[in-house]
């Protein structure tokens, strides 16, 4: 298999299926059609991305496989956003050089795709995602840091990995609330990720995310959550980047300062979405 041709084919197929799966109107029957088309499209696209990745991985040195996995994971999440009709409205640009810690509120499973699309960073993720079909395999090979929040040893290992990646000049993306929450309120930030980068001199980039329509993701399964998003004609996502915070303060103070900053950015993002509705 020619890996370059495979990459082009998966990208082309994604764009074609997106146009078919994103009708802008229609009743319940059209919603059902969108769900079938989009879920099928994402499964097919994911399988194509995974096949292309495995082909390239076989020809890549061990030292290069980590970043190769990251690139293909980013392609997969980009495809997820396109196929499911997500429209990103990004306010601000990453302006740092070298390592950084990016922190955001967490409302939806789509947040992962949004943040990887904007920052192309190393993701701190809950451990069970490693077992998901397709996405989990790429995540494991894609420089993702997995953490079991109920296991202290897992947490300590994750913090060491965050510090190592940041020292290497990588961007680490985290959701310090530790879970998804409905609405625009930003819950307490856990201080661990901030302790991991303390004294490194890297910036902490706060990000606020808001969705229209809202995408509550609490007790429902991942599959049901994606199905509800797939049924919509489209979903707009405002992504607001704030001014960097220093990483040299104590972790709890930094966590609260970041939470307050993110909450303000979420409010800004919500106002942008409301303004576009009028």
What do you see in this structure?
Helix 3 (62-83) crosses helix 4 and helix 3 (62-83) runs antiparallel to helix 5. 52% of the residues lie in helices and 14% in strands. The protein has a single domain, classed as 3-Layer(aba) Sandwich (Glycerol-3-phosphate (1)-acyltransferase), CATH 3.40.1130. The longest helix is centred in the first third of the chain and has 30 residues, at 28-57. Strand 3, helix 5 and strand 4 form a beta-alpha-beta unit. The chain contains 9 helices and 7 strands. The chain is globular, with a radius of gyration of 19 Å. The chain is α/β, with parallel strands linked by helices and 278 residues long.
CATH topology: Glycerol-3-phosphate (1)-acyltransferase
Element order: H for helix, E for strand:
HHHEEHEHEHEHEHEH
Helix content: 40-55%
Q: Let me know the largest β-sheet.
A: 7 strands, mixed
Number of domains: 1
- The beta-strand count equals 7
What is the CATH-assigned architecture? 3-Layer(aba) Sandwich
Descriptors:
Glycerol-3-phosphate (1)-acyltransferase; 7 strands; 7-stranded mixed β-sheet; alpha/beta; 9 helices; 278 residues
In short:
This protein is α/β, with parallel strands linked by helices and 278 residues long. Helix content is 52%, strand content 14%.
Topology of helices and strands:
Blueprint: H1 3-20, H2 28-57, H3 62-83, E1 86-91, E2 100-104, H4 110-119, E3 122-126, H5 135-141, E4 145-147, H6 152-167, E5 171-174, H7 192-197, E6 204-212, H8 222-230, E7 235-241, H9 251-276
Parallel strand pairs: 1-7, 2-5, 2-6, 3-4, 3-5
Antiparallel strand pairs: 6-7
Helix pairs in contact: 1-2, 2-3, 2-8, 3-4, 3-5
């Amino acid at each position: 298999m020619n890996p370059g041709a495979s990459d082009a084919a998966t990208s082309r197929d994604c764009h074609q299926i997106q146009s078919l799966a994103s009708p802008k109107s229609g009743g319940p029957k059209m919603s059902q059609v969108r769900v079938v088309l989009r879920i099928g499209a994402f499964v097919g696209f994911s399988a194509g991305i995974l096949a292309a990745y495995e082909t390239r991985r076989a020809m890549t040195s061990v030292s290069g496989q980590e970043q190769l996995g990251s690139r293909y994971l980013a392609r997969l999440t980009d495809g997820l956003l396109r196929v499911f009709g997500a429209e990103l409205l990004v306010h601000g640009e990453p302006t740092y050089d070298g390592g950084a810690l990016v922190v955001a509120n967490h409302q939806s499973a789509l947040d992962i795709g949004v943040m990887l699309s904007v920052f192309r960073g190393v993701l701190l993720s809950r451990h069970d995602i490693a077992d998901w079909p397709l996405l989990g395999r790429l995540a494991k090979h894609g420089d993702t840091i997995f953490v079991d929040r109920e296991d202290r040893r897992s947490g300590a290992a994750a913090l060491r990995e965050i510090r190592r990646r940041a020292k290497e000049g990588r961007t680490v993306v985290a959701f310090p609330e530790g879970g998804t929450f409905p609405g625009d309120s930003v819950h307490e930030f856990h201080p661990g990720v901030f302790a991991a980068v303390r004294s490194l001199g890297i910036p902490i980039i706060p990000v606020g995310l808001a969705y229209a329509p809202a995408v509550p993701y609490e007790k429902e399964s991942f599959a049901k959550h994606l199905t509800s998003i797939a049924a919509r004609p489209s979903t707009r996502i405002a992504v607001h980047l704030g001014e960097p915070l220093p990483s040299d303060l104590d972790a709890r103070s930094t966590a609260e300062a970041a939470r307050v900053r993110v909450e303000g950015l979420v409010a800004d993002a919500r106002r942008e979405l409301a303004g576009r509705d009028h």
